[in-house]
Write a structure and sequence with these properties.
InterPro entries: AZUL (IPR032353), AZUL_sf (IPR042556), DUF7590 (IPR056012), Ufd1-like (IPR004854), Ufd1-like_Nn (IPR042299), UFD1_N1 (IPR055417), UFD1_N2 (IPR055418). The chain is α+β, with helices and mostly antiparallel strands. About 30% of the residues lie in helices and about 20% in strands.
Length: about 800
Amino acid sequence: MADNTLTLNWSAQLAVTAPQHAPRLPGDKITLPQSALEQLLAAAPLQPVSTAPNNARVHTSTFDPFNPHTFAAESRARQQIEERQQQLPHPLTFRIVNPQNNRFVYAGIREFSAAENEVALSAILRESLGISDDQLESAVQGHVNSNGDNAQDVSMEGDGDDVEGQPARARAEPAVVTVHAKQLPKGTYVRLRPLEAGYDPEDWKALLERHLRDNFTTLTTGEILTVPGTRNESFRFLLDKVFPEGDGICVVDTDLEVDIVALSEEQARETLKKRLERTARAPGTTSGSSVGGELGIGEEVAAQVLAGEYVDYELREWNREDELEIELTTDEPNVFLFASPLGSRQQGRPRTDMHVWGDFSSQSPKRFKIRPTNVALEGAEAIYISAYASAPDSNVESSTSAQRQLPLKYNLRITSNAVDTADETVDNGATEEPHAPGDVQCKNCQQWVPERTLVLHENFCLRNNILCPQCGNVFQKRSAEWENHWHCPHDSLHGNDAASKQSHDSIYHKPYTCPDCPAQVEGLPNLAQHRTTECPGKLILCQFCHLLVPQKGDSDPDLHDPEVMLSGLTPHELVDGGRTTECHLCSKIIRLRDMNTHLRHHDLERVSRPPPRICLNQNCGRTLTSTGNKSLGLCNICFGPLYVDTYDPEGKALRRRIERRYLSQLMTGCGKPWCQNGFCKTGKQKTTTGTVAAMSVADITKVIRPLVEPVIVNPDVANTAPFFFCTDETGQHRRNLAEMIAAEGVAGVGKAYELAWCVAGAEAAGGDLEKTREWLGKWAPARGETAT
C-alpha cells in the first residue's frame, strides 16, 4: 500500500437494512446515514497550511506586498486552501466486517441516505459477508412484533412468545456489521480465474471493462466477480491476485491490467477445445451461420443459420412510397423471420423477444408486408432484418445432437410494389374444388367422387379415415399424425406432432418476464410488442442529449401521462427537454422541447416580413433605417451633399442641386479610387479601357435630363426614380456584394433573394460575405418562399 502519513480513522457498528427497505445498489456500493458523513468530515485529517521552516508564512505567487488589492485576494485564496483541506479523500472506500463469521469485504460509497444507525449493502456485499436475505426479513418481522405496532396480535399470544416458546425479541436481532474507513491503493494489476471453461476473450473483455467502470470502486481478493453477458448469460471469475499486493485495490482513476488464467489444466484444455469448435463454426464458414450484411430491393440471397443464432441484414435504400414485402423460404419449420426499423425510437436489432414485424409460423414461405403508411417507419434510417433458427427441444427423440449442430438453409428476398388501393381484393377463402358433372361429395373426407362409386368409397373411407371437425383435415385413423393432432384452445392454430405443440405453446402461450422492467406478458409476440412500444427500458436516441437512454427513468412521468401523450415525446425526452438554452436568433432562453416551435415562429416571421427600403442611389448599399431624405429615397450619406438649410417648398433649388451634382460628376469626376459609377468621369475611367473623351456641356445636359426629369422632389409624395451618385467606399462595397449574391440566386448557385434583402444583409454583416449569407438564411425570405 501507498505510504499515506495522513489517514482517515473512522469506524461504526451499523445494522444492515433489509433489501425491501433499501434502494437497489449495484456492484460494491453501500449507503450510509447522514450522521456518518458528519463524523467522517470531523475525522478528516487537516494538512498544514505551510511546510516552510519555523512556520514561516508563505504567500501565493501572485501576492504583491506593495499592492493593497492583493491582500484581499490572498485571504480568499487561503480560505479556499483551508476548505480543500477539509474535503474527504476521493474515492471514499470502506472495509466492512461481519463479526459473526469474521468475513470482510471492501466497498465504495453510493450516497449518504440510509436510515440512522443502518447501512444498506448491495446483494454482492451481502453474499460476500454471509448475510442472507431471509435473516434480514425475519429481523424486520421480529422488530415489528417487538414494538407496539402490532400490539393486538402480540396480546393474543399472551406474553409475546411464539409457537416454539422463544421470545419474539430473540428473532428480532438484526444483522450488525462493522464499517471502517479504509483507503485502498490504486490498483495496477488483477488476475482473474474463470470458474467455468470455454470463455472467449471477445465475450468478456468489453463486458468486464464496462461492468467494472459502472458498478465497482474496489476489488477484494478471494471474492467471486459475476459479469452479466448479452444473452441472459453470465461469466463468473475468482479474484485471485491484485497488485499492489494486499486484500484489495481501488479501481477508480487508474490503468488496470487484467490477466485471465485458467483455474486448472483440465479447464484450460476444455477452454481450448471449445474455442476451436467455435472457430470451426464461426460466421461465414461452411459449418457456421452466414455473415449477413446489406440487402437491396429485388436481391435474393441463399444463406444458412445455426440453431440458436441470428443472421442480420439491413435495407438502407428503398422508395418510401412503395410497399415492401420481405419473404423467407425454407424447408425448416423452426427458422423464423423478424424485422425492425432503425430510428430514434427503435435502436435494437430484431430478436425473438424484441421486433416490430415477425413471422413465427411453421409454414413456408414466411413473409410480411410493410406499408409506407406504417407509423413505425416514421423517421426510419434503415430496416433491420434477421433470420433466426430456434434450438430444437432436447427432449424430442427425433432430434439428435448432431442434427442440432447442422446449419439450416433458407432463401431471403425483399421486393417493392407500388401501393394501389383500387387493385386490392378481398379474399374470403371460399374456394370450391372443381369436379365433374354427376360427382358427389363424401361427407367424411369431403372429396368429390362419382355417384356410382359413392357407396364403396364411403365404406372404405369410414373404416380408414377420420375428419377433424375443427380444421377439416382428413387423417388415417391409425396414423401418428392423427394420434398427435392438436388444436390450441386459445387460438385457431393446430399441428400434427408433439414438437409443434410444444413450440407453439412456448412461442404464444408461455409467460415471459420483460428483461428491462417487471412486466409479465404471455407469448413472444406480445413480449416483442411490449419491448418495442411501452416498455420503460426501451432504448431510444434522445433528441436533446443525443444519447442512447431508456425512454422512461425512475423519476420520469408515466408513459400514459397526459402531458407525455400530448407532447409526442417519451418521458425521458419530456424531462430532458425541460432544460433551457439560448436561441441563436433572438438570444431568448427557451426550453429545449419548445425550441422547434420557437424556431417555427421565427420562420413564420421571416417569410412574412416585408422587404426593407434601400437607398435609391444605385451605387449605395444602405437601407433607409437611419436619417436621410426618405421622400427622395436617399440615405444620409447620399443626401448629405444635397442638403442646404433654405426654404424650398416647391423643391426647385433641390432639383438644381441634383443637376449640378450630375454635371460635376460627368465633367470633373469624384476622384475616388473605388468609384465604379457609370455616370462619373472617374468611374468611367476605371471601367473603360483606353482614354475617356471629354464631354461638352451640351452633351452632358442631354445625359442629365433623363436622369433628373423622373425625380419627384415633392416632400408629400415618395420618389421612385433611381439616382446614380458617387458614394463612399463602404456603400460601394456593400452594393457590389449584394448584387453578387442576388445574381448567384438568379443563376441557381444558391437561394434566390431579392436585392433589397441582400443589401440589408450586407449592411447587417458589415460587408462580410459569409456573414451576409448567414444573415440571409436566418432573417430573409427566399424568392417565392411562403409560410408553411
